[in-house]
């Protein structure tokens, strides 16, 4: 059992619119200007994705060009983002900021009236409310260590669920609903059937996590194809609330010890956020991250490319150069 505890802790160390000829004309010019401005590659990628949404709407819905848009046209576009694409206020705010950049870069003035009016009427918030933080690998390691050092009878199972959440970037419900028939215990491949979007997808885990999983499942009372991987002592499916409580309690304990900062807002979903940020930091293409995490819209994934954690890391990297 101690061997399993040691292995659980980490070792140091919506579719994108098709480009039309008209759209491409504006995209090429915008990218040329922004590249000359020295804009970072990741920023360029996210800006272009959103700009395509705007240009597609202008061309197909309004049958216009960006340079002859009027106030009423911009209002139609943002109503479209709100009612049809169902984007959050914070995401709409990003579109607003992007269009300010786009029209300034293109040296066009027809967005100015809408921009001034929107600021005056406070249509778009200057700040974004964030409900919880993305966990870092260092913080995660402290949480797992705290769990395996505890006295709970389910400490190995609980820590393993949390580590698998990190590896896979899954939602908690997706992991606890895994059954034997969904898992390839040799390759570490998992088929997720009970997903939020009702679309089956495949995820994987690290070799270390897989080793622990293969040892852990030997202690399960039931191991038929239809049985759940993570079971109670009675062999039943575990409750989401239990894992959330375990995670929350150990984060609280680590805050009291001063190991995790008290202002960090960490919940189990922070593991999914942290994994998304980690993937993007390691250079995984944003469309791959979208598919792996099972986001219905690229807009959700784009959120992480502008997360505070990524900005903080960038500032630390810049500080080293000073």
From TrEMBL:
All residue ranges annotated as the Tyr recombinase domain in the record: 130-317
GO biological-process terms attached to the record: DNA integration; DNA recombination
InterPro entries (UniProt xref): CB, DNA_brk_join_enz, Integrase-like_cat_sf, Integrase_catalytic, Integrase_recombinase_N, Integrase_SAM-like_N, Tyrosine_recombinase_XerCD
UniProtKB keywords: DNA integration, DNA recombination, DNA-binding
Molecular function per GO: DNA binding
Positions of the Core-binding (CB) domain: 21-107
Protein name (record): Integrase/recombinase XerD
Protein's organism: Methanococcus maripaludis (Methanococcus deltae)
């Amino acid at each position: 059992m101690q061997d399993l505890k040691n292995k659980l802790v980490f070792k140091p160390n919506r579719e994108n619119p098709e480009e039309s000829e008209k759209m491409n004309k504006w995209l090429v010019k915008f990218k040329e200007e922004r590249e000359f401005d020295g804009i970072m590659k990741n920023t360029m990628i996210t800006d272009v994705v959103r700009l395509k949404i705007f240009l597609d709407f202008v061309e197909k819905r309004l049958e216009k060009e960006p340079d002859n848009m009027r106030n009423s046209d911009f209002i139609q576009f943002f109503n479209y983002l709100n009612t049809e694409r169902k984007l959050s206020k914070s995401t709409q705010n990003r579109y607003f900021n992007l269009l300010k950049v786009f029209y300034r870069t293109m040296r066009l003035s027809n967005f100015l009236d809408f921009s001034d009016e929107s600021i005056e009427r406070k249509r778009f918030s200057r700040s974004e409310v964030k409900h919880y933080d993305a966990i870092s690998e260092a913080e995660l390691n402290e949480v797992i260590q705290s769990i395996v050092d505890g006295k709970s009878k389910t400490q190995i199972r609980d820590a393993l669920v949390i580590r698998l959440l990190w590896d896979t970037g899954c939602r908690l419900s997706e992991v606890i609903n895994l059954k034997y028939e969904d898992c390839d215990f040799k390759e570490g491949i998992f088929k997720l059937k009970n997903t939020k979007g009702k679309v089956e997808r495949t995820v994987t885990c690290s070799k270390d996590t897989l080793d622990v999983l293969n040892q852990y499942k030997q202690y399960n009372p039931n191991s038929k194809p239809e049985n759940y991987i993570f079971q109670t002592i009675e062999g039943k499916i575990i409750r989401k609330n239990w894992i959330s409580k375990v995670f929350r309690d150990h984060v609280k304990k680590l805050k009291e010890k001063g190991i995790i900062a008290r202002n960090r807002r960490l919940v189990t979903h922070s593991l999914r956020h942290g994994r998304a940020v980690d993937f993007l930091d390691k250079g995984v293409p944003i469309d791959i991250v979208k598919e792996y995490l099972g986001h219905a819209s690229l807009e959700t994934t784009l959120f992480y490319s502008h997360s505070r954690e990524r900005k903080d890391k960038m500032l630390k990297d810049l500080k080293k150069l000073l």
